[in-house]
Amino acid sequence: MNKQINLDKAGKIDHNIRNIPDVKKKPQKHRSLITVNGRDVLDDNWLSAHHIISIAGKNTSSASRLLRKRYGIGVVEWRLMGGLAREPDIAANQLSKYTLTDKGQVSRAIQSLEKKGLIERVPSRTKTNRKRVRLTEKGYEIFDAHLPCVVEREVVALEGMDEEEIAQFFATLKLISKNLDRYIDKISE
Question: What sign for the dihedral angle of Cα 135, 139, 141, 144?
Answer without folding.
Answer: negative
